[in-house]
Amino acid sequence: MGPALLLVLLVLLVAYANGANDNMKGVATLYGSGAASFPRALAWGTATTLAGSLTAMYACSSLLLTFTGRETIPGAWAGTPQLIVPVAAGTAATVILATALSLPVSTTHALLGGLLGAGLVLTGGEVRFLLLGKLFLLPLLFSPIAALLLTSVALRVMAWASRRRTPCICIGENAAVLAGPEVAASGRGGVWMCEIPARGEVRLRSRSDFPHFLSAGAVSFARGLNDTPKIAALLLVSHAFGLSGGMLLIGLAMAAGALLHSRRVAQTMGKGITAMSSGQGCVANLVTSALVIAASRFGLPVSTTHVSCGALFGLGIVTRSGRRALMARIALAWAITVPLSAGVAALAAWMILPGSR
Question: What share of the chain is helix, strand, coil (3-state, %, to 5)?
């Protein structure tokens, strides 16, 4: 098998693994809140992600240069199959393992680790660490914190706005209750109690789940917009595909991974991290999509995983229904992603390209 063919196959495996691990992150709130069944959420997430992938052909080419290694790996190795094959191997192995363990991890982080590990082996340690940190680590570390804080604030503001504190009025034995549509009232005889919406609860005025579906589609679209150029950058090194053809192929491979192997991570994201209502899920999605689309527009390699999970963490903290043990397990998986991918990529570079040592 030639290096070019091996590169294409490995990069398509990365795209497939990305679809399996990342696809449901956009529509996890639909599934988790009960607004949609798993098949319906899967179909909507896959379609809107593919739309984002196709849009990336025209809107996000600035991410391509970053992930070929030309800005971070000095010398003749940058942008070559000898570098990209180990990078793809490390990335694919890491994301596939995480998917098997039902853990949502960042493909961007895995790519970062792959570039780091393969670059260290090929260049003898001459990786531009400061530039690597500026381009990758700062946006990746910033994104989950920003998502958590923004979601916490947005939930509190929207919960306050949607709350109606209409008093209950008791009239003798046949108590008459004056209450707004958002307040439930119950009682017996002349003693009545008004139920204020739960902490962090957001009431959607729409009688349908259309706003929630729209916000989930926006997240999936943003994911396709942000992730496709990162993976397509690896594919273009083979010179077998042009920009449009490469991004289309990556988008299709991501869709295939989503349709066939996304249920495990969907369970973790939708049902595991925190309980949620449709309104709360809608708020988390709006924060996620805004952050990821802005990052894609300015060429910042944020992780959709970190942003969407950060939003769900914020939701769980505000409502006090977050499962902290699972949050800690996910955070640990994030911490391991870079060194694991770097280790696999370094080993692949050492084994597959012994002449480069």
Answer: 70, 5, 25
